[in-house]
Amino acid sequence: MQHSIVKQAFIKTVPVMAGYVVLGAGFGILLRNAGYGVLWAFAMSLFIYAGSMQYVGVSLITGGASIFTTALTTVMVNARHLFYSISMVDRYKDAGKYKPYMIFGLTDETYSLLCDGKTPEGADPAYYRFLVSIFNQSYWVTGSVLGSLLGTVLPFSTEGIEFSMTALFIASFTGQWMSTGDHIPALTGLLSTLVCLVLFGPDRFLIPAMLLITLVLTLLRSRREEA
């Protein structure tokens, strides 16, 4: 049974592996070009594990940013986690010894794989979600290390590499859309984001969009419970 759960968790995370290895490699190359070697790439991906924030972190490190600037930038870039992590509270509350790591390892992509609440039949949900989380981080760490190593021997342009994460989001969204008949949450997210993009512009729409999505879904949930 344990072997089967590990196998199913790995299969579940294969799409994320395709994106994380590539994006992690891009981060490793950028960090190498900034003068920081493989140990830095490994340590940042192991202990920070913040995806887009690690890319921003390269600029902060090389630009000599202050602690205050670094902290503020980190909060702004990662503020979205405050919103979607709320929906995982009930699923994670009984995770026991796995809970601390699962909280740390809850990235956008891990959330997209676990938000439906489905786990293999007969499996411990907490153990399965822990495996999904740790598989995903292992892909990111591996990509970062490979990128740092390859950056020493191969010329590589990172232009456009960030689109692989966008493609990963689209694939996850499409999979969720096809696997469920209730499209209200997805449509709420799309419409709320579009409205905030028009009102606030591409540089400031993310946090207002997350607030609007949270508000609308909370109201819809309340009405459903009353019904």
Essential attributes:
single chain, 227 residues, mainly alpha, 2 domains, 12 helices, 0% strand
Task: Report on the architecture of this protein.
With 227 residues, the protein is mainly alpha-helical. It has two domains: 2-159, no CATH class; 180-227, no CATH class. The chain has twelve helices and no strands. The protein has helices at residues 2-33, 38-47, 52-62, 67-78, 80-84, 89-92, 99-104, 108-114, 125-150, 163-179, 184-200, 206-226. It starts with a helix and ends with a helix. The mean pLDDT is 85.
Rg on CA atoms, Å:
19 Å
Q: Please report which band the strand proportion falls in: under 5%, 5-15%, 15-25%, 25-35%, 35-45% or over 45%.
A: under 5%
Mean pLDDT: 85
- Give me the number of helical elements: 12
Main sheet overview: none
- Low-pLDDT residue intervals, each spanning 5 or more residues: none
Order of helices and strands: HHHHHHHHHHHH
User: How many domains make up the 3D coordinates?
Assistant: 2
**Residue share in helices?**
over 70%
SS elements, strand count: 0
The outline comes out as globular
Secondary structure class reads mainly alpha
Alpha carbon gap, first and last residue: 40 Å
Secondary-structure topology with pairs:
Blueprint: H1 2-33, H2 38-47, H3 52-62, H4 67-78, H5 80-84, H6 89-92, H7 99-104, H8 108-114, H9 125-150, H10 163-179, H11 184-200, H12 206-226
Outline of the structure:
The protein is an all-alpha fold. The protein has helices at 2-33, 38-47, 52-62, 67-78, 80-84, 89-92, 99-104, 108-114, 125-150, 163-179, 184-200, 206-226. The protein is 74% helix and 0% strand.
